[in-house]
Amino acid sequence: MKETTPAAMPPCFDRWCRRFDNCFKNEAQKNGFRQYLGGLLGESERKNLTQIANNAVGVVYNRLHHFLTESPWSDRQVNECRLQVMNQCRQTQIPRGFSLIVDDSGHRKSGNLTAGVGRQYLGEIGKTDNGIVAVTTHLYDGKKSVPLDIEIYQPASSLAEGKEDKEFKKKPEIAIDLIDRSLTRGYRPKIVLIDAGYGNNTNFLKALEERKLKYLGSAEKVFRWWQGVGCGVWGVGFYSFSGGQLPNFQGKSPGILPPITPRLGTF
């Protein structure tokens, strides 16, 4: 039974969709955007193309499939427009002093024809399985959470040339790209929140510090880092410690601990 029709959508739906019309080149694309978005907002439990097409009058599966897979429009342009629209409303505008949360989300998926699908660690189930992983950023200001960007991680096994493929990027590299998008928009976070998957990556932490971004996260117990320590008249320098605990010199000489220069990418 057909549950929805394009004409049944409230006028506010079309008014909202018009704000994205500049992202599309023709009426077919604009209609495809409305049909797909309407399908996502519908009552169907499964939000795949087959179900969306079956549940809506006037929606043809092949046309909707072409819109999502072949039609030349930019998902990044649509996302930029979404953020601009949200920023025009007081309730959803991007606030100052927000926390930027970096995370990745993995989900099981059968088959291997979808880009990014392969055997990899999936946080949803806590083990390695066939699935897809996306790196995400979103902000939190103490009241609301706003999704910012998302990028599919493509494991080396899913690419023709493996790690040598030009499309291959590690998750921390993707995360830095997403952070740079926020900075380019003028969205500068008060702090970046990360889990151990990123907190253990020294190149990622170095990139944050190069951008003068404060960060808070977790790291493995054996993670080694460098900390500047002032020791009065006995010397000021960087000392290597592990386990997340600094020694307490209590005003005494550090003795045999020599001051050293931190290595590249290590903190």
UniProtKB/TrEMBL annotation:
InterPro entries: IS701-like, IS701-like_DDE_dom. This is Transposase IS701-like DDE domain-containing protein. Pfam families: DDE_5 (PF13546). Coiled coil: none annotated. Residues 20-222 form the Transposase IS701-like DDE domain. It comes from Microcystis viridis NIES-102.
